[in-house]
Design a protein that fits this description.
Blueprint lengths: L3 H11 L16 E14 L3 H4 L3 E12 L7 E7 L21 H12 L3 E5 L12 H32 L6 E11 L1 H11 L28 H4 L8 E3 L4 E4 L12 E5 L2 E2 L12 E5 L10 E6 L4 E8 H10 L4 H6 L4 H10 L5 E3 L23 H4 L8 H22 L3 H13 L2 E3 L2 E2 L2 E5 L6 E7 L5 E5 L6 E5 L6 E9 L2 E9 L1
Parallel strand pairs: 3-4, 3-5, 5-8, 8-10, 10-13, 15-21
Antiparallel strand pairs: 1-2, 2-4, 6-7, 9-12, 11-12, 14-16, 16-19, 17-18, 17-20, 20-21
Helix pairs in contact: 4-5
Amino acid sequence: MKHYLLLLCALFIGWTGISQERYLDPVFEEVTVTKDVKYGENYTVISVPLTGKATLEDLLLDVYEPTEDTSELRPLVILAHTGNFLPHPVNGSISGNKNIDSTSIEVSRRLARMGYVAANIDYRLGWNPLAPTVEERTNTLINAAYRGVQDFRTAVRFFKKEVAENGNPYRVDTSRIVGWGFGTGSYLSLISATLDSYEDIIIPKFIGSDITGDNQPDPMVIPQIHGDIYGTALGLNPATGDTLSVPNHVGYNSDFHLTVNVGGAIGDSSWIDPDDGPFISYHVPTDPFGPYKEGPVIVPTTQQLWVTVQGSHSSDALANVYGNNQVFSDLGLDDPVTRIAESRRGGIAGLMPLIGSAGPNDSAPWQFWDKETNPNSDNELMLNPNMSREKAMGYIDTILWFFAPRAFAVLELDEVSATENLAFETGLKIYPNLVTHDCIVETDPAHPFEAIYIYDQQGRVMKHIRNIRTNRLTLDLSGLSGGLYFARIVTAEGSSVSRIIKQ
């Protein structure tokens, strides 16, 4: 916000390819992916039809980082795929997990190229669309969403724990976290951003059948049985003896700072409060499955009506009433995508209505597939007859163009991008990552450095070299004890900071 004019110029110049600005443009060529990082564990009901009970499951995510990035701390985006809370292909979707959701993979890669760290997560699946009554089917679906919210929040806490206890291996800035969902995953990001207390769930539409055996209708989720809303407490079903939830990363909060919703909805608008932070939402107004405003959820596997929810238009409208999205209005953006959004949304800041190109049932035009890995993709063609990678790329372009300047403002990335850009522009590299005795400090020949300062975690200068002018130096760190240090490299253009881990 302090550098609004600079941001605006960077936005218009950057997207035309004349200049590149970190967090607004894809400034990195390569992305490093770390697969199947365990971020927690919890009990899944997907095993019940086979084993008769819930079983413990590893919760996994993939981390996407910009290759050869020298920035010490990067904002984090946690992404959740779509898939109707059922595994592929029985969910009737081309998605269902992080490995085959082409859209969440593509967006994760693009965010990493822009300088973010992206975490594409799997979460627990499972509900019973074939239960004998609508009430039972609805109950199991609500429980599936509840478990997904627990897992999404567990992923947030995992990274905070990694920072506090494990040396921050992914160099995440926990003061700048984005929760992002696609379709079903958007229910998780929206609810995780807004559901503050269990009491908020105790409303008529979330009261179901008798669970406790007292011949009275019970809430569809009960903390003692299903765990708390954060996934930090034990949940046991006394009727079956089944464990349904175990705590993960207790002592860390589940807060994040910006919510992105692509085609999702919130369980109830009463969960939105004035201090929930801003929402960025994308939605096809004619979406037949998830309401754009307010209406029942329709699950593609059954084509039945379920609980009434509030979609992107309604949730963002309320966020605007509460002032949560005022930051977007204050930007005063006037780029082509913003103008298109304003022409469709009726003055609701943060909302981007997207028009599918294949008729009113084209509910997720940002989705695409690889037929070799998604054999069920032909089923999706009935809803999106012109689905293709080329088509999806255009929508993803729009999604990221709309996201970039708004995230830049909300996360106050103007405060950090200058030094990060300087490191990138000077070609600063320090290697190896783990130092035994010596490390190499290197810049591009056109940007020699003049001084090096090594600081410990308390900010004390432990070593320095001044009055030099070179682009490559071997730095002897044998006299330092093992641990984390910070190197400040001074060039004619300014200084950049990078971390060093001494074995």
